[in-house]
Amino acid sequence: MMRFVSQIKEMYDRQLSHPGYRKFKDSGVPIFGTWDDHDYGLNDAGQEYEGRDMSQRLFLDFLEEPADSERRRQKGVSAALCWGGGTGRGMDWILKP
């Protein structure tokens, strides 16, 4: 499992250092995300995958999810987001793998 953890961390680090992604991230555009089975570390992995909690932590670290976020206390990375509420032009997102 540790091999998969280091590979996942390496991929997130590579993404963070990519000039295009860095420019996009630095522009201030909010970045939200969810994962699929490949983000666990194994293709078609499910809840039984022993590295799931570590994969979740690495993913949320990559997204810079706040330490007190509900996503850090739950199993999985699902989320419901509302942006622009009360403006009449709001948007809702459901992030679910």
Question: What can you see in these coordinates?
Answer:
This protein has helices spanning 2-17, 19-26, 52-62, and strands spanning 79-83, 91-95. The chain is 36% helix and 10% strand. Helix 1 (2-17) packs parallel to helix 3 (52-62). The protein is globular and about 45 Å long. With 97 residues, the chain is of the alpha+beta class. Strand 1 and strand 2 form a beta hairpin. It has one domain.
Query: Strand count, sense and closure of the main sheet?
Result: 2 strands, antiparallel
Contiguous uncertain segments of 5+ residues: none
Number of helical elements: 3
Q: How many extended strands?
A: 2
Sequence of secondary-structure elements: HHHEE
Structural class by SSE content: alpha+beta
* Percent range of helical residues: 25-40%
What would you call the quaternary organization? single chain
Please tell me how large the radius of gyration is.
Answer: 15 Å
Strand order of the largest sheet: 1-2
Measured distance between first and last alpha carbons: 22 Å
What sort of overall outline do the alpha carbons produce when their principal axes are compared?
globular
pLDDT averaged over residues: 81
Count of the separate structural domains: 1
Report the β-strand fraction as a percent range. 5-15%
